[in-house]
Each structure stands twice: as C-alpha cells, then as structure tokens.
Amino acid sequence: MYFSSTLRSTVSQQISYQIDNKLYLSITDRCTLECRFCPKTQGNMSIKGYDLTFEHRPTTEEIIDAIDDPGHYEEVVFCGYGEPTLRLNVLLEVARNIKSRGGRVRINTDGLANLVHKHNTLPELGKTVDAISISLNAQNSEIYNLHCRPNLPGSYAAVREFIQDAPRYIPEVSISAIEGLEGVDIPACRTIAREHGIKFRRRILDQLG
Ligand code: SF4
What CATH number corresponds to the domain at position 149? Predict the structure, then answer.
C-alpha cells in the first residue's frame, strides 16, 4: 500500500484524502440534491476521520498539487461531499492531468450532469474517465424524490437517461442504491443495472464508496 507523505491536503483544507489504496478528491461542496441520508445535509462534513469542510473552492492548480503520484494509487476518485460534475471543466482538466501521469480516474456522481449543463457531457467525460459510479438511489421517482430531494425538476428521469447512455462512452459503469432506506427496493435497482448490462453496488448507509 502506498502512503502519501503529506496526504496531499492544503494547509487549511482537505482537497485529497486517502482511503485504502485509493485517493479521493473533494473539489466542490455544492450539490443539486439534498439527500436526507447524507451526513453533509445533517451538518457533518467528515469522512473516515477527514474533515471536508470547505473554506474555498480549490482551483485546478490546487487540486493537481494535492495529487502526489496518481500512478501509485489503485484509482483517483472524484468524490467528497459535493457533486464533482458541477465543476465540469475543472474536473476534466484534473482528470486529463491524472491520466497523463499514469493514473486511473473514477467519478462518483449523481448522474445529473446532462440536466445541469444542458448538453450531453458523456462524450467529454469518456475521453478521460475510466469508471463512473452513478447514484441511482431508488427504483422510481417517488422514492428518489423522498430521499434525494432534487432541486431540478425531472431529475430522476435525467439520471435514468444518463445511466442508459453512459456505457456507450465510459468503459466501466456501475450504479448504486443504499440498503435500508424506506421504500428503496434493492432487487428492483439491481434489475435496472442488469437491464443495462452494468454493475450494481449495494451501499451501506454512512460508508464511502
Ligand atoms: S449528492 Fe452526495 S454529497 Fe450531495 S447531498 Fe446527496 S449524498 Fe450528499
């Protein structure tokens, strides 16, 4: 296992953080969802002992500086308490840098990038992203809206469309839902994954993935 010498944080703010042999990047604190189950929604910005509280949104340069050697990690994951695709251009630039230095890139996303940015972002993402984990979260819009409280109308339909299109552009696509939330039907979510020929990951509440 490779351990970064500094864990690549800036002095004042944790931009990158290592868990097992993966390096995670926290590039924004903004979301288009306000998930009831999310620690951030409940005022808790820590993950596995790392405090991801934002003092400012890091620049592209600060994020790249927070990645010591991407090739030493199993993968570099855009994650954190915020939706990374909200900063699409920053994400793409950092992802290109990671790839140029021999790293593997994964994005953990709500799958709403196309709805937010009003165009198909997948061709751009597909040029630099090796894997994408999309939070499906529910088998229908009623349960999705109950737990995720989206700001934008049509969010559930948008995430379903994103899931359908993603495998055309990104080599490894998976979707997830959280076990134990009221009304969430894990077998039904697994069936949706199977219909698209992609992986399903059952998540446990409060565990990072
Ligand atoms: S999208 Fe992610 S970070 Fe944002 S509120 Fe939902 S679970 Fe939390």
Answer: 3.20.20.70
Residue 53 forms part of a structural domain: yes
Q: With a 6 A CB cut-off, is 156 part of the ligand 1 pocket?
A: no
Ligand 1 atom with least separation from CA of 80: 3
Q: What are phi and psi of 23, to 5 degrees?
A: -105, 125
Does the beta carbon of 35 sit less than 6 angstroms from any atom of ligand 1?
yes
Cβ–ligand 1 contact at 111 (below 6 Å): no
Scored b (16 or more CB within 10 A) or e, 9-33 reads bbeebbbbbbeeebbbbbbbbebbb
Domain presence at residue 103? yes
pLDDT digit string, tens, across residues 163-191 = 999 999 999 999 999 999 999 999 999 99
Provide the residue range defining the domain that includes 187.
16-204
Domain contains 101: yes
Going from the Cα of 28 to the center of ligand 1, the distance in angstroms, rounded, reads 11
pTM for the model stands at 0.93
Domains held by the chain: number: 1
Please provide residue 120's backbone torsions phi and psi, each rounded to the nearest 5 degrees.
-80, 110
pLDDT digit string, tens, across residues 62-112: 999 999 999 999 999 999 799 999 999 999 999 999 999 999 999 999 999
Is 57 within the bounds of a domain?
yes
